[in-house]
Every structure is written in structure tokens, then in C-alpha cells.
Amino acid sequence: MQRTLLRTVLRRKKALLKAFLALGLVVITGVITAPRAVTVFSAAKRKLPIYCVETDKPQVAISFDAAWGADDTELLIGILEEKNVKATFFLCGYWVNKYQTEVKALYAAGHDIGNHGDTHAHGAQLDLAQNQREIQGVHDKIKELLGIEMDLFRPPFGEYNNVVLEAAESLGYYTIQWDIDSLDWKNYGVEHEVNQVLNHKHLGNGSIILFHNDADHTPAALPQIIDGLRQKGFEIVPISELIIREAFYMDHEGRQKPNR
Question: How far apart are CA 45 and CA 59, in angstroms?
Fold first, then answer.
């Protein structure tokens, strides 16, 4: 009787041991195979816009975003003409609707006309088709008004993701950011704006500088900034002349580089 009971207990222990071993094998297998699943379903590689350009030429570009007022536009055109500088102006669709005279004046003065989205929407919150409509909306307005095809796009708020960049690319656009922010939109004053640009740690060959056409202190700061850039040996060119249009790649910092 005792021997029979002992054999029964041993059989139960063996059964429990097998069950624990089987469970452990499942857990271990899951741990080992999990990274493979992550790799298979990993996110798509992050795309980058053009923040600056790698070039041996001592060239930089000045750009303006036009999304709100237009009171200083004529003044800025005059300053740029006096300094013999061609800049790049990124225009919103509703700005184009409201300030057609200023749009024509910018183009007549020889400046780049760029696309800043139709309604200044948050592109990262939109799908591909919505982003395409935002870009195409301004494109059509400028084509009707000036008869030109734009190919430079700056996302509103500087906000982007892969969908925004894919939408721009699908419509033949180069997406442009900046590596020097003048911070003119913060209205810190002329001296701060001049210092912010001329002593910026990223200022160098191929830099793209951001201004706004309606900032309070930019008309007073701009002549000093232009003179300071030239004193540092830089030639100021529009973005259309700075960027590389074929055979290039983007490094991890958003620097556009030529294929070697």
C-alpha cells in the first residue's frame, strides 16, 4: 500500500516538473524570438528636409516666411535691392490671396517665391492627400498669378514627418528648413537679432537663415546682418541657387550633400 502511494506521488511530481519545463521553454522561446518580430515590423527610416547644404563655396541664403501681415514687405524689398541681395520668400496661400500686389513686387524684384502651405496647417497632423492639397493649393495660386512653377516648400511651423516630405516630393518640391533662426519672431530687439545670426554656432558655408516678413525689428537689423555676413566672407544667394538639385543625399543632421 505504501509503495503504491509512493509511486503515485512520484508520478505527480514528474508530471508537474514536465509542465514547468514546458512553460519555461515557451517563455524562453518568446524572449528569443521577440526581437526578430520587432526587426521585421520596424518603423520606416526617418526622412529629413534640407537644413543646410554642404558646399566649398562661402555662400549662405536668406529666407523669409510670409504668413501674416505685409506692412514691411515693401521696405524689405527696398533694403534687399539697396544691398543687391536676392532672398527667398515662402508664401502662404491666404497671404497670396490678400497681398497680390506684394507677391508681384517680390517676384519682379528677382526673389525666389516659395511655398509655405495654403492655410499654414500642422502638416504632421494631416494625411498624405491633405498635405498634397495644402501644397498644391498655393502652387496653383502662384502659377495663376505669376505664371511660374514653384519647387521650394517650407512646412508651416517647421513641422514635418515622413508623410509631409513624401507629399512635397510627390509634387516635385524640395523641402527646406533652416540651420540659423534669427528669432526675429520673438521681438528681442535689433542687437539681439544681429548677434543671433552673425555669431550663431552653425553659421557656415551653405547655411540657410530664417526671417519673417512682418517681424518688428528685422527691417532695422537686416542691413547690419547683410553687411556682417559679407564681412565674414559670405556671398548671399537665393535658396534656388544654393541647393543641390540632383545626385545628393541627406546626412543625419539634415545637411544636403552631393553624391561622391
Answer: 30
Kindly report the CA angle at 64 between 169 and 202, in degrees rounded to 5? 85
Give 136-192 pLDDT, tens digit per residue: 999 999 999 999 999 999 999 999 999 999 999 999 999 999 999 999 999 999 999
What is the CATH classification number for the domain harbouring 201?
Answer: 3.20.20.370
Report d(CA 62, CA 85) in Å as an integer.
Answer: 9
Task: Tell whether pTM > 0.85.
Answer: no
| 13-29 residue pLDDT tens | 444 444 443 434 333 33
Cell numbers representing residue 92 in the block: 502662404
The answer to whether residues 118 and 93 touch, using CB atoms and an 8 Å cutoff, is yes
* Enclosing H/E stretch for 28: helix 2-40
Q: Can you give the length of the chain in residues?
A: 260
Question: 28 and 65 in one domain?
Answer: no
Say if 47 falls within a structural domain. Answer: no
